[in-house]
Design goal:
It is a single chain. Helix content is about 55%, strand content about 15%. It is α/β, with parallel strands linked by helices. The strands form two sheets. Strands 2-5-1-6-7 form a five-stranded parallel beta sheet, sandwiched between helices. Strand 3 and strand 4 form a beta hairpin.
């Protein structure tokens, strides 16, 4: 059986970059956030439940209006919880199918922004947290998304504090500008592989 490894990190930490490196090493990566977006646009059952929650106008030409949804759930934790209760089980089912398809790989990785917040990490064997200094993360997101510092800080405030995540993670990758990530990734992957074959 494959070891299931979660990869997470706050906004702008560089978890996607770490996952791309893991893929180049030959390991499969399940991108939860991307899959969630695909499911909300293509799964008839999920679409129906989302429309019940937000109204049928929330879809334009079959695509979910994510900006509108984000604005609505940002100010309403109860609404966010309801949305998550629709999406997370669907993503979990998709992950199980994907794991079966990739059962020949000794390590499989699951990238998820809110791995600890949702408790998904309990279903995985190990977790990797990608970290970077707050100012650097803010700079990255401003450059990537073209948003203001205020918006980035508001998004960060919604995520679990870094220190809390560090306590929960099995491994930590420091993605600050003065640290090389490849040696850190190789070391973790080697340790995980040894665990499996030890």
């Amino acid at each position: 059986m494959s070891l299931r490894i979660g990869v997470t990190g706050g906004i702008g930490s560089g978890k996607s970059l770490v996952c791309r490196v893991i893929e180049t090493l030959g390991y499969p990566v399940f991108y939860s956030d991307h899959i969630a977006r695909t499911i909300t646009d293509t799964d008839p059952q999920v679409k129906e439940q989302v429309m019940e929650l937000f109204g049928s106008n929330i879809y334009t030409y079959g695509k979910l209006n994510r900006k509108e949804v984000a604005e609505m759930v940002f100010a309403d934790n109860e609404l966010l919880a309801k949305l998550n209760s629709i999406i997370h089980p669907a993503v979990a089912r998709s992950f199980e199918q994907w794991c079966m398809q990739n059962s020949n790989s000794e390590l499989v990785f699951k990238e998820a922004a809110i791995l600890f917040e949702t408790g998904i990490y309990h279903e995985l064997h190990k977790t990797i947290l990608v970290t970077a200094p707050e100012e650097l993360r803010i700079k990255r997101v401003i450059e990537r998304d073209g948003v203001s510092e205020l918006e980035v800080r508001a998004r960060m405030a919604k995520q679990m504090p870094e220190e809390e995540k560090k306590r929960l993670a099995d491994y930590i990758i420091d993605n600050s500008s003065n640290q090389l990530i490849l040696p850190q990734i190789l070391s973790i992957v080697q340790t995980l592989s040894d665990t499996l074959n030890g």
